[in-house]
Write a structure and sequence with these properties.
Layout lengths: L2 H13 L2 H8 L3 H15 L4 E3 L4 E3 L1 H29 L3 E7 L8 H11 L3 E7 L2 H10 L4 E4 L8 E16 L19 E3 L7 H13 L5 E4 L4 H9 L5 E4 L10 E5 L6 E9 L5 H18 L9
Helix pairs in contact: 1-2, 1-4, 5-9
């Protein structure tokens, strides 16, 4: 049985006249009669009761008509969905992201993408950078947002945002009243930092900044989550260096100060598989770049000589 057989039957069932149904279908009457007879033989059921004077639906034919209509509607829907998926109008995108992206571009990016593409489902998964790379290689996510470095050459890396580091200090810290600080003045402080295996991007940039300032930080605590890291600073357990996008958290307990003379930036990047043909991914990447540029333009000048 083919979809055209259902169309033929529906036309005859609605017209209850082979001649009018044939005209409606733009075909001759004899082939139409043969197609309906073949359909009944295939089903082993009489769908139409025919006399010289009229054509009527049998009880089986009435039930079959309802199902035939539903089948055609579903087939047309399947065809439409396939076309929309090919055009990037409908589908699903699986997105991995690091926690710190939630404090910068991710909320705006997701909101705008959903508004512009209401038929595309975004599946969001919070992941460490290393887990994102594994998920990309496994094919369990389509795109990732993380802090470089990214090792595998099979992945395409696109910078979305470069933001300055700022010093996060407890509210009662001796440098809290200064508008900007020299990182070297924190050389004797205890630091709260991510462990490298959890956030190599942030860890490496912080260590580089401290080494350029002439010291290796004394790490007292190494929490795995950014919220925990900031809570430790707020509790007075140490200082930290964090992306500027986090400087709105714990305003009553933490002060955030730009680093005097520092030009070190922390990168947020988008990763995807090379040479992947996915129009939905292309839409997401283009919007991510746009949102990243808009967000970067909001950063105030943080280089203080």
């Amino acid at each position: 049985m083919e979809l055209r057989h259902l169309r033929y039957f529906i036309a005859v069932a609605e017209e209850l006249h082979f001649g009018r149904a044939a005209e409606r279908l733009h075909m001759a009457q004899p082939p139409l009669s043969q197609q309906i007879k073949g359909l009944e033989e295939e089903l082993g059921v009489q769908l139409l009761a025919r006399t010289k004077r009229k054509v009527e639906l049998t009880p089986a034919g009435r039930l079959f008509l309802d199902e035939a209509r539903l089948t055609l509607v579903q087939a047309e829907r399947a065809q439409r969905i396939a076309v929309e998926a090919e055009q990037g109008v409908r589908g699903r995108l699986r997105v991995g992201f690091v926690t710190s992206a939630c404090y910068s571009i991710l909320p705006v990016l997701v909101r705008r993408f959903r508004k512009d593409n209401p038929l595309i489902d975004l599946e969001l998964m919070e992941m460490t950078p290393s887990r994102q790379i594994e998920a990309m290689e496994e094919g369990s996510i389509d795109v990732g947002i993380l802090r470089p470095p990214v090792g595998p050459s099979c992945l395409l890396v696109k910078t979305l945002l470069e933001e300055p580091l700022v010093a996060a200090l407890p509210i009662d810290h001796r440098k809290a009243d200064q508008k900007a600080i020299s990182l070297q003045t924190l050389s004797e402080d205890a630091f709260v930092l991510f462990p490298r295996h959890h956030g190599p991007g942030i860890f490496d940039v912080v260590m580089k900044a401290c080494h350029e300032a002439g010291f290796t930080p004394q790490v007292s605590y190494s929490p795995n989550e950014m919220q925990t890291l900031l809570a430790y600073v707020a509790a007075g357990l140490g200082v930290s260096l964090v992306p500027q996008s986090l400087s709105a958290f714990h305003p009553a307990s933490i002060v955030y100060r730009p680093l005097r003379g520092s030009r070190i930036r922390l990168e947020l990047a988008l990763i995807s598989r090379r040479e992947e043909n996915n129009p939905i991914l292309d839409l997401f990447c283009a919007l991510a770049s746009e949102v990243g540029m808009e967000y970067a333009s909001q950063f105030r000048k943080t280089i203080v000589n």
